[in-house]
Amino acid sequence: MEDVPEYRPVHRETRFDADLARYAARAKGMVASEIRALFSVANRPEVVSLAGGAPNISGLPLDVVGSLLNELVGERGTVAMQYGSAQGDPALREQITDVMSLVGIDASPDDVVVTVGSQQALDLVTRIFCDPGDVVICEAPSYVGALGVFASYQCDVVHVAMDDHGLIPEHLDSALASVAASGRRAKFLYTIPSHHNPMGVSLSLERRAQVLEICRRHDVLVIEDDPYGLLGFDGEPYRALRADDPARVVYLGSFSKTFAPGFRVGWALAPHAIRDKLVLAQESATLCPPTFSQHAVGTYLANHDWRGQIKAFREMYRERRDAMLASLADLMPATTTWTKPNGGFYVWVTLPEGIDAKAMSPRAITARVAYVPGTAFYADGFGSQSMRLSYCFPSPERIREGIRRLAAVVEQEMDLRDTFGPLHLGRGRGVESPGPDLR
Ligand SMILES: Cc1ncc(COP(=O)(O)O)c(C=O)c1O
User: Fold this and answer.
1) What per-residue confidence (pLDDT) applies to 126?
2) Whole-structure pTM value
3) How far apart are CA 84 and CA 201, in angstroms?
4) Ligand 1 geometric centre to CA of 148 (Å)
């Protein structure tokens, strides 16, 4: 009889980390969120996910993109699949200046550095400017992916309050003054002025001028992150901060929301000296940004009505924003408040007093609706009474169903609060990454 090998289960995965003592200090700032596990169920079809920030690329003409890619490989494959320059393809950099002209920026392709999404631009900017312990000023709340970068470079994040018109200039002024008074210098202000992630609000025109004036006065650099700038629902896009102060502002752009995130093409526009450092940093990080992706994006821009496509995306997101705002108004308990975005992907909801969005999250998942608790967007654990809802991906009907489920969960939570008193979980433990699909 043939020998049957003895069955021995092999445990390939373990949470125990035998290399713990070996990690660099900067790796200790990288923590996965406890809510990451919850979100693995958020992607199940029965759950309405209002958590993810993935663009709804079903609106793209895939047949057109497919034949453009086919042509690209057939006609220029040997160039498109070869190494390229660390700064990025010159033709694409030229096209990027056309895209930026829509937000009022007049720039030379020489000052553009192509990156692997604007996420890599954030990484490179932080790499060239920040030593451990350096202060970075961020909005409160701020983009979770940026907070993750700042944590991994061991930066000290100082948050500045926002309201419905964006960053509050007086608070910025006093934050910069108190950083200086403590003998330190803020390395830069990181801001998302247009259609903010996660708040969904935009910096007013008046405040744009004030923010620039304050940063000039305190001699602080501005990192302007603008992935949603062309996805406004009313009239012309906002004028970028960079358009009014080219020497002080590093502008970050992306094709992720206006075309498709899978190509991972973004860019930084920077003053010459900073650009040179970014190119060297890019060279050490990747040798060159992916040539094929750059050619794919360049071919799309050159051969397709990309402006018309952005218009179509805007209409799609506007319909979803309308569905979310109407559902919130119809269904949420009266003491809940939320922002009214005029572009982008997100609504920021503030729950009734004494309700903790993080504690409520497992119960929401059980009720088959997911969101991102507000604490994910603060480096200091604040934000527990808030949550980010995204309307970019689900259909208007699913959005309404999601809000109906969420409203019922909030009501149950209010009943619990009224019976047992408010829950005091204390502050969170700082920057946690909820997972790549939840940006
Ligand atoms: C504010 C903000 N910045 C940067 C990014 C990163 O975008 P990407 O790397 O896809 O260009 C995102 C993605 O959601 C974002 O919301």
Assistant:
1) 98
2) 0.93
3) 38
4) 12
